[in-house]
Amino acid sequence: MGSEKEVPASLGWRVTVPEGSSATAEPVAGWNCRTRRRLVEFGVGTLAKVSTFGKKVWKIGADDPRKAIHGVKVGVALTLVSLFYYARPLYNGFGSSAMWAVMTVVVIFEYTVGGCLYKAINRAIATLSAGALAVGIDWVATKSGQKVEPLILSASVFLLAAAATFSRFIPTVKARFDYGVTIFILTFSLVAVSGYRVDELVDLAIQRVSTIAIGIGITISVCVLVSPVWSGQELHLLISNNMAKLADSLEGCVEDYFVTADNNTNGEECSSSPRSKAYESVINSKALEDSHANLARWEPMHGRFGFRHPWKQYLKVGSSTRHCAYCVESLHACLNSKTKAPESLKKHLRDACVKLSSDSSKVLRELSSSISMMKRSPRINLFVEEMKLAVQELQLAFSSLPDQLLLTQATQSKDEEHKSNDCSTGGAAAPSLLDIVPLMTMASLLIEISSRIEGVVDAVGILANVTCFRSIGIDKSSSKVQDEGQEMKALQQV
After folding, report:
1. Around Cβ 102, how many Cβ atoms within 10 Å?
2. If both were cysteines, with which of 74, 112, 115, 491 could 231 make a disulfide (CB 3.0 to 4.6 Å apart)?
3. So what's the pLDDT on residue 478?
4. How far apart are CA 201 and CA 167, in angstroms?
5. Is 471 helix (H, G, I), strand (E, B) or coil?
6. Contacts of 345 by beta carbon, 8 Å cutoff, 6+ apart
7. Which residues contact 486 (CB under 8 A, 6 or more apart)?
8. pTM for the whole structure
């Protein structure tokens, strides 16, 4: 025992096991160590979440600085309207009713000028009409006696609130005056109910209307004068960008199906590229287009957009674009098909499909550029003719697909006979008609997309006529383009 070395206390305790050997038992960490470790883990996790959240916020502001400016504009408007509460001379003139100006700025300040004007005009009309109606009904109720007065006020609140609420189900009222009806119900109820206990109801109504008018004036001034965001311009750019996205998605789907799949020699499943999924934002943009078009009607003349601009025609163009996007969505579904067509048949249609997708994308990009610049394109007719010629080439290649299928089957049958003569086992099965269904679907959808693009061309042409797009002067390059277009028409007739 005396020869054994003593173990330091920091290492733990030495225990003798039944076999005669010894082992060291480490002491269990105390509660203070566990608590410290958990606090460190919690702090590190919190810092990581805060850092991730900060990066997302910074990305939102960096992608669209107007959103950060909008926050500054709201702060400026609230600061200006708060002076009616902080400054004693202004407060003496309005009293506690100045708080209605602050509430007005909070509820009507929107990101776009159209949204701000929509709420401001609705709030102004609803406040004036509801206040005047409530004062008139209160006067009638007061003249009717103390016993009948609460009955008249209660009945008026019930009838007007019920009628106004039912009117919100009318599509026209719902689209343009839904917010105004809500404010009408709120203002009339507050004025009518408070008038039963307030002697000077007219003064109260005048103070509230004046403070609300001040809030509306400050809000509109800041929204319009400081870096304005117009709903009409947002709709204009949205329609133009959707066409460009659809063109990218169309080319991406065809490239992923033919080019990328051909370069994939490992036999792995070819995944679609992010470019080919751009159609998703086009399909999901209907609600945003309707919102911008509805708000753009409330905006005054600005930039290239005059009074009573045909915003409904923009919706028709957007609808035609989505009509194409639905076909592109079906086209994208062919990429994930488990049935794979033979490479020989894909090569037979590859050039025609790639050319048609390229020509169709040219038409969409030209329309996008025409809408963006609000100018008539001198090359759109040429691009449409090229697209039609590409359709004819694909139809010709598509019609010879059964012969190509029979040739492929015969070739594979001969290969199997040679392999059987060489005593080989196995072999590739001859392709059937079901094996080329995805390929046939791909070609058919491309032809259908080209016909739907012609509908987009017609919708954009109507928009150009209604809004008087500017015509681009004919120069040498444009005259050359027209000559090429005439030659293509002649070839098409031949």
Report:
1. 17
2. 112
3. 43
4. 28
5. strand
6. 401, 404, 405, 408, 431, 436, 439
7. none
8. 0.78
Question: Roughly what angle, to the nearest 10 degrees, separates helices 286-296 and 311-333?
Answer: 170
Q: Please give the backbone phi and psi of residue 375, each rounded to the nearest 5 degrees, phi first.
A: -130, 145
CB 361 within 8 A of CB 324: no
- Amino acid of residue 486: Q
Residue 117 has, within 13 A of its CA and on its CB side, a CA count of 18
Strands 470-471 and 375-376, how do they pair?
parallel
How many other C-beta atoms are found inside a 10 Å radius of the C-beta of residue 371? 24
Distance, in Å, from the CA atom of 247 to the CA atom of 251, rounded to the nearest integer, reads 6
Euclidean distance between CA atoms 110 and 113, whole angstroms: 7
Residue with tokens 């460190």: 40
Give the span between the Cα atoms of 354 and 332, in whole angstroms: 15
Chain centre to alpha carbon of residue 5: 76
Helices 113-143 and 99-108, axial angle in degrees (round to 10)? 140
How many residues are there in the chain? 494
Torsion sign (Cα): 309, 311, 317, 320? negative
Cβ-based neighbours of 331, under 8 Å, separated by 6 or more: 250, 253, 254, 442, 445, 446, 449
Specify the amino acid at residue 447: I
CB 286 within 8 A of CB 325: no
Contact criterion met (CB below 8 Å) for 311 and 238: no
* Tokens describing residue 76: 């400026």
Tokens of 373: 């610049």
Check residue 10 and give its pLDDT.
47
Residue position matching structure tokens 């049935």: 339
Distances (CA, A) of 48 to 34, 56, 61, 377: 21, 12, 20, 52
Which tokens sit at 58?
């910074």
Low-confidence ranges of the chain (pLDDT < 50): 1-7, 9-12, 265-269, 423-427, 474-494
CA pair distance 366, 362, nearest whole angstrom: 6
- Gap between the Cα atoms of 209 and 215, Å rounded: 10
